[in-house]
């Protein structure tokens, strides 16, 4: 049993790491808040003085603000739907005994380790190119006109690219949950004549609920800041401009760090609202 002396020693040893972590988090956040109230033009003399809430009103008053928020939420929702559904299916398939099971699992998980910029370039040039892309050749093989994915189906294309990157993560978490399932319970249900869909709905899916909520929470936090895939593929055109990309564009257009910082604060607020909402869902599932 830990004594008061040992607990104090543990806190003392952890203090440098905690202080470093807090500094790493709080210093950029404090600078962002500070600049959001300033007119800071790095190419035109630097700090121009106090701006008050003008950066905030200017950013949220833009006609592109709410569409960018909507686009962000649509991409996040689409990616979550695809990765969770396909992740459950892949986890169940990978849990079955097969030849070369270890190699197959590595191949399924491998896309998660590819940089977002690289994967977006691969999809843009190798798969979605309307002239030389693999999908274009498949369309021509069946006598159809190739689709210009990034202009005619821009949102589904972005969702597809990002889902390909995050599907391995969801599969890995869900596969771990599937492997912890009590096999005797499934065998008993099968011996009682329960079909697979009934076993999945009443036994497997409830067991996966915690893993699914964790996947949704972690992915949402990262997906709210999606940028590289849009920068490489559409450049924010064709209705794919997210809130993060809008901040990038506003800083480039105005060369005003204060305006971009105000947009960053809005992004933080949006992320916290979504995170609090998801944490309530996660908390209910974990307490169940």
Please describe what this structure looks like.
There is one protein chain. The chain has helices at residues 4-36, 54-60, 65-94, 101-109, 116-127, 134-141, 149-152, 154-179, 183-191, 196-223, 228-233, 243-254, 257-287, and strands at 38-41, 46-50. It is mainly α and 288 residues long. It has a domain at 65-240: MetI-like fold (Orthogonal Bundle). Strands 1-2 form a two-stranded antiparallel ribbon. The longest helix has 33 residues, at 4-36. The chain is globular and about 75 Å long. It starts with a helix and ends with a helix. The mean pLDDT is 84.
Could you outline the blueprint of secondary structure elements for this entry?
Layout: H1 4-36, E1 38-41, E2 46-50, H2 54-60, H3 65-94, H4 101-109, H5 116-127, H6 134-141, H7 149-152, H8 154-179, H9 183-191, H10 196-223, H11 228-233, H12 243-254, H13 257-287
Antiparallel strand pairs: 1-2
Helix pairs in contact: 1-13, 2-13, 3-8, 3-10, 3-12, 8-10, 9-10, 10-13, 12-13
């Amino acid at each position: 049993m830990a004594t008061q002396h040992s607990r104090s020693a543990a806190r003392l040893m952890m203090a440098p790491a905690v202080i470093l972590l807090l500094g790493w988090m709080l210093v950029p956040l404090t600078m962002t808040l500070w600049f959001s109230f300033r007119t800071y033009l790095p190419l035109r003399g630097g700090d121009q003085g106090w701006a008050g809430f003008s950066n905030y009103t200017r950013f949220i008053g833009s006609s592109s603000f709410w569409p960018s928020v909507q686009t962000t939420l649509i991409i996040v929702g689409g990616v979550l739907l695809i990765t969770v559904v396909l992740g459950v299916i892949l986890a169940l398939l990978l849990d079955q005994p097969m030849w070369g099971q270890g190699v197959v699992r590595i191949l399924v998980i491998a896309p998660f380790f590819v940089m977002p910029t690289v994967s977006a370039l691969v999809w843009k040039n190798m798969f979605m190119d309307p002239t030389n892309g693999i999908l274009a050749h498949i369309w021509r093989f069946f006598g159809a006109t190739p689709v210009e994915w990034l202009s005619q189906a821009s949102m589904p294309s972005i969702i597809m690219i990002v889902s390909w990157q995050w599907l391995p993560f969801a599969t890995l978490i869900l596969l771990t949950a599937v492997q912890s399932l009590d096999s005797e319970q499934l065998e008993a249900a099968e011996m009682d004549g329960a079909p697979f869909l009934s076993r999945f709905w009443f036994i497997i899916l409830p067991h996966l609920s915690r893993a699914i909520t964790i996947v949704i929470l972690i992915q949402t936090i990262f997906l709210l800041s999606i940028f590289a895939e849009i920068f490489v593929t559409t450049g924010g055109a064709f209705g794919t401009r997210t809130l993060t990309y809008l901040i990038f564009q506003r800083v480039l257009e105005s060369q005003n760090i204060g305006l971009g910082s105000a947009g960053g604060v809005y992004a933080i607020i949006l992320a916290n609202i979504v995170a609090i909402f998801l944490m309530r869902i996660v908390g209910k599932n974990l307490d169940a």
